[in-house]
Design goal:
42% strand; 15-stranded mixed β-sheet; alpha+beta; C8orf32 fold; 2 domains; 506 residues; 16% helix; 5-stranded antiparallel β-sheet; disordered N terminus; 10 helices
């Protein structure tokens, strides 16, 4: 059982769930609608992770005429049910896209529901070559325009393309598409390999054409599709906890999830052989980190709290150093000003965020003291540890005062900005004493004394010990409704790494 002091979550559930929604355009499996019909055709999928059933997907596509041209409307929804440290997490994702005969994106709706957090939604409409986008995060609306070239396709275009022009072994197709989750244009490449005998959901073997699908916005994730002679994908695979989807009937897709739900947090812990009793307050620690398929030297950055020494192509020696927050820092010229503004997830001007910031600062003028007080304040006030929320914005957390590491990190970062202290969030792993393992984690960094200083609102120790492995950082300012890119580096390591604590000093 996790204690209040070691409250963290496996961030894979965030990334996995969000990326599953993100890749929904690649998972509209069997596009089998009759293009001459005006009524939608439904196709159903069942979704597995780590050999356990976690949900289903449904796709609908219909054709209509508008101003004399054919318009294709594709609707795809997914429902996932999992656990994180024993607490249930439910996610519903909906994507609707409109495209013309050539696949050009004309408009979209993307929405994710993850109660108790507010629904996250993005709506776009193409007007005179510009995509007008309205995004809602934490109940707040932001608007921006994106210039789109005429060859930018919808995320649903791939399925219609492969059915109208099925690929043969050795052939490939590349096209650009706009991803609402990122708020960016990426390039999708589909490459046909050879025929493979694969098992479908009914356990029957079938010879299908294997295809590899990549998205430039998700460079660490390559999908595999197994398609029939019509270009319909009957099975897909993705490196997200062994995610597999099958094309099935409606009745099969809607069957209740049987047995124990998948606990994505426990399932993604990186166990340490002969683990130390604690690293939370250690001054230094030396780790041996190994992975067969990942260039760890490029993946693990150097920072004031860690230094990576490449031992071989598949091993690094990682030195972690504890770093307490500095004190006696009088206000001066603000550097890193770009880390002071509001973002969709860090609403520093929110009334409730400001109130928490003022209470935590308690009148102090010393920036270091303010930062430490805020870290302690978040630790003490977020007493309800809620593992069912994927990612709530700072304004939502300031209102409900509950959550896990992502909510602690976002609220603390927004509070720091409210007091004119530059901040961002960091993503990586933390050592959990009681579990003897490293787990996915998010914490906060404040720019103090001309360097980025880590603060962890789940621990409240005035900085960190030699317990955190940083992979990336983010100001959470992306235009997309979910900060997927911030979490992607975890995919390069999770379930594909071994960590050994060589020595440490308290």
């Amino acid at each position: 059982m996790l204690t209040r002091r070691s409250c963290f979550k496996g961030l894979l559930v965030v990334v996995g769930s969000l990326c599953l929604c993100l890749l929904s355009g690649l998972l509209n499996l069997a596009w089998a609608a009759d293009e001459s019909a005006n009524h939608p055709r439904e196709d159903w999928q069942v979704i597995y992770m780590a050999h356990q059933r976690v949900g289903y997907g449904r796709s609908q596509i219909s054709k209509m005429m508008r101003d004399g041209q054919a318009i294709y409307v594709t609707k795809h929804e997914e429902r996932l049910q999992m656990k994180r440290f024993g607490q249930s997490i439910q996610i519903e994702a909906l994507s609707v896209s409109e495209e013309n005969e050539d696949g050009q994106l004309l408009g979209f709706v993307w929405e994710m529901k993850n109660p108790p957090a507010n629904s996250t939604k993005s709506v776009g409409k193409l007007v005179n070559g510009r995509l007008q986008v309205e995004t809602t995060v934490g109940g707040r609306i932001t608007k921006h325009d994106v210039t789109l070239e005429a060859d930018v396709k919808s995320t649903a275009y791939q399925d219609r393309l492969l059915r109208s022009k099925p690929l043969k072994a050795g052939e490939s197709v590349t096209f650009k598409t706009y991803s609402p989750e990122f708020g960016k244009v990426g390039t999708i490449k589909v490459t046909a390999d050879e025929m493979h005998s694969v098992k479908l959901h009914d356990n029957k073997e079938r010879s299908l054409l294997k295809m590899r699908v990549s998205n430039s916005l998700l460079p660490v994730i390559e999908m595999k599709m197994y398609c029939d002679e019509h270009g319909d994908a009957l099975r897909t695979e993705a490196p997200l906890l062994g995610m597999v989807t099958f094309s099935v009937s409606r009745d099969v897709a809607l069957q209740a999830i049987a047995g124990a739900e998948l606990d994505v947090a426990v399932g993604t812990l990186i166990k340490v052989p002969n683990p130390p009793a604690t690293l939370i307050k250690a001054k230094t620690a030396i780790l041996k980190v190994k992975s067969k398929d990942v260039d760890l030297g490029k993946l693990i950055p150097n920072s004031p709290t860690q230094s990576a020494k490449v031992v071989s192509t598949d091993e690094v020696e990682l030195t972690l150093t504890g770093l307490p927050a500095p004190r006696n820092l009088v206000p001066g010229a603000v550097k890193q000003k770009e880390f002071l503004g509001e973002t969709q997830f860090l609403q520093a001007k929110d009334r409730r965020v400001i109130e928490h910031a003022e209470r935590a600062a308690a009148g102090s003028e010393d920036l270091g003291t303010i930062a430490v007080r805020m870290e302690r304040y978040v630790y003490e006030k977020l007493t309800k540890k809620n593992f069912s929320t994927a990612l709530a914005s700072a304004a939502e957390v300031a209102e409900r005062m509950e959550g896990d590491c992502t909510e602690h990190a976002c609220l603390l970062a927004a509070m720091l900005r409210a007091k004119q202290i530059p901040s961002r969030v960091a993503v990586g792993f933390v050592f959990a004493d009681k579990l003897g393992a490293f787990g996915g984690h998010m914490w906060t960094e404040a720019f103090l004394n001309d360097q980025w200083v880590p603060l962890d609102g789940t621990l409240g120790l005035g900085g960190i010990g030699a317990s955190h492995i940083k992979l990336s950082d983010s100001d959470l300012s992306d235009n997309g409704p979910v900060p997927v890119a911030s979490f992607l580096p975890i995919f390069n390591i999770i379930n594909n790494v071994q960590i050994e604590v060589v020595k440490f000093e308290r």
